Amino acid sequence: MMSISVVPIRTSGNNSPTETNSVRPYGKAMKTRSVFVVTFIVFALAAVIGLLGVHIVATMRDNTNVIDDHRALRAAEAALFSQKSRLSATVRDNAVWDDAYKAVGAPGAEDWIYGNWGKTSADYPLYDAVVVTSPSGVPVAAYWKGQSFEPMSRFGEQFQDHVQLANRPGSDAIVSFIKVGSEAAIVASQAIQPFSLSDPSVASPLPAAGQYNVLSFVKLLTPRTVASIATEYQLEGLRISAERPRGMLAVALAGFASQPVAFLAWPSKAPGTQVFREVYPFVAACFLLVILFLLCVLFAGSMEARRMRKLASHARMQATHDSLSGFLNRLGLMDELQRLLHDTTDHPPIHLHLVDLDGFKPVNDAWGHAVGDRLLVMVSNGLNTAHPELRALARIGGDEFALVQIGRTSPERVASAILEVFRRPFQIDGRTIEVGASIGIADGHSLQGVQDPHELLRRADVSLYEAKASGRGRFFVYDRALDQERERVSELEAELRRAIAEEAIEPLFQPLVSASTGVLAGVEALARWRRKGMEISPEVFIPLAEKSGLIDPLGLLMLRKAVRAMQRWPALTLSVNVSPLQLCNPSFATEVMALLEEEAFQPCRLVLEITEGVLISNPDQAKRAIDALKKAGVRFALDDFGCGYASIGALRQFGFDRMKIDRSLVVAADKDEAGVEVLKATIALAVALGIPVTAEGIETGRQAAVLRDAGCDMLQGYLIGRPMTGEDLARLAAKSAKVA
Ligand code: C2E
Ligand code: MG
Ligand code: MG
Fold first, then answer.
1. Which residues are within 8 A (CB) of 78 and not within 5 positions of it... i.e. 6 or more apart?
2. Matching CATH number, 330-478, of 3.40.50.1970, 1.10.8.140, 3.30.70.270, 1.10.3720.10
3. Helix ranges, 638-725 (H)
4. Domain coordinates of the chain in residue numbers?
5. Which residues contact 458 (CB under 8 A, 6 or more apart)?
6. C-alpha R_g of the chain
7. What is the C-alpha to C-alpha distance for residues 720 and 704, in angstroms, rounded to an integer?
8. Domain 504-739 in CATH 3.20.20.450
């Protein structure tokens, strides 16, 4: 299965983010996280405070209810106690009475009872019924609201037990609740006895317990009675209930055997709940406000987080994309390659095409950066559609693009498609601009487990270098041999560095003779490096020194050694080659002057030979260095004239003192008459400008003759003498022979 996700191809070249932001994505992620944390903390704190508030209100409500319920229960119990006490006191006042004791035990007791108690029961508020029971438990007389009645059937067995318990002198009245039909009543009983039990005139001897008549008063708990208790004890809703009602407060009306005969019940006032109900709208409003506040916090937090995320993604976009082309930049490319190379799913091969524009710099120089930028955008658009397998595109340098190919097409075919973009010139505001490209290709699968995007890019870069070296407008696929060659070069570079440090590079001297007399007039110093017994050509190690930043110390070393060697021949001039890079070094002139002064070498004996390259690449700096040294007396020769683009105009502009005809012109003059004519014309022009000409590479007498005739005043070449050591030069100088 083929599944791979890659960055989308950018279709427009100029869809870059406009806002700039230097905050790095990591910082944004941190800020987003802190927004979440702060929001969460505020949320949690507010939630806890809210819940605590609710808890406090609920606890106050419940505790207030409980306290009031306790109060109500105590009030109810006090009310019952008061009722019982009152009846108990009434029955005591009537039972412990000498007259009653005597009357109840005598004939006509019934009438006495009616007269004193039965009649009163009709409308007496303290009791509703009166019963006098004989010692055997038989009612002597009983009146209910003034009317005689049968107590045992109305009050039941419980009454008998009650009366029996009261049948003893000296003790308090027995008080309990009984059931009378559907109603509850308080009954208080006491033995009828003389007031003073020790008075023998009343009764002598006194009967034993159980031998008394017992007086019982019964007071019904009528709704009226209950209502007056409710008012007196602030027990709203008080009523008598046969069962303990659910959801209400109640106290039991304990019967003779302590079992409840009924319940005095009333609803809880729940003042806490009432107060809560009153404040509930405010509590709810507070709660809503807290929720609203939390929602605001949440909203603000999420907005801030979103803003942070947006900024972060914007910053990430900026950090990983090129603003001009809209492609990835180097960082974005590396991320993408990292992802692709570590993607373990089965996906097609990956190739990296590193594209470098040929001839872009001159466009920038000639038309300005605005045109250069537009050209880059046009190139980006072309690359965007060059081949469908080019899936991730990046601009990683001024005119350098990296294109990731994911697919099975051969990378050579894709590279050809890329080069096709440059086949036709670009049109910008009526200008026709031609640029080419060189491509280095590296295979992502050939990394053999390395999976390092930097290594892939390096390989593509090595291939690009090779493509450029082999001529413009080409592509090159990476090969291990390239690295081996690089390793060899870097090894050579290390050895060269050592050789310079150890001053192991020596000058050879090639004689320069006067064309007319053949007399030795000077020498050209040519650098020689013997490495492991082998002589390495300056054509190899000079460019290497230039590339690796060693040319300055090497040039000065050569100059110093040559100057020292030439002290022996004060009549000879010394020509020393100078690399264009040396001339670009702003301190070059001062360094040369200091050296000549140190070695006490006359500046007018020194001729510095430079090639034309520097005159094109950095004319201002070259002119400054040349002027400074010329002022001191040093002379300059334009080397290898005729093999490049250097014009006669350059000869004048830079004030060259001499021109050296390149060997290629000399060789060409050997071939045909036209060559001779070119040579003659070239020399004639220089002579006309008053610039003397040296001919180099003279190998035959014929060449020497042609050049002498053409106007060269100095000759140099194997015919006169090969580059030689100081000793050989000493012999030659001693002979001072005429060699031509
Ligand atoms: P150049 O300055 O043009 O030096 C002349 C080159 O031509 C020398 O090569 C010399 O050996 C060679 N030559 C002279 N006469 C003949 C001839 O009759 N026939 C043939 N076939 N060749 C002849 P060499 O020494 O290999 O130097 C090559 C180049 O390396 C020099 O070209 C110069 O550009 C550069 N070079 C040499 N020494 C130095 C140095 O100390 N510093 C710098 N910067 N460049 C140097
Ligand atoms: Mg030279
Ligand atoms: Mg030369």
1. 233
2. 3.30.70.270
3. 648-653, 663-671, 673-688, 701-710
4. 75-197+207-266, 330-478, 504-739
5. none
6. 64
7. 9
8. yes
CA of 670 to the centre of ligand 2 (A): 21
The closest-lying atom of ligand 1 relative to the alpha carbon of residue 716 is 15
Burial of 342 (0-12, 13-18, 19+ CB in 10 A): exposed
* Dist. CA 628–CA 625, nearest whole Å: 5
CATH tag, 75-197+207-266 = 3.30.450.220
Q: Ligand 1 pocket: which of 536, 577, 664, 666 to mutate (most atoms <8 Å of CB)?
A: 577
Among 526, 561, 659, 661, say which to mutate for ligand 1: greatest number of ligand atoms within 8 Å of CB.
526
Q: Which amino acid is at 664?
A: S
pTM of the model: 0.54
Question: How high is the mean pLDDT in each 10-residue block of the chain (740 residues)?
Answer: 39 35 40 73 81 86 90 90 92 90 87 92 91 91 93 85 86 88 90 76 70 93 89 90 89 85 90 86 84 83 85 87 93 92 81 95 90 95 95 94 95 96 93 94 76 90 92 91 86 94 96 94 96 89 93 96 95 95 92 97 96 73 92 94 72 89 90 89 89 95 93 95 94 65
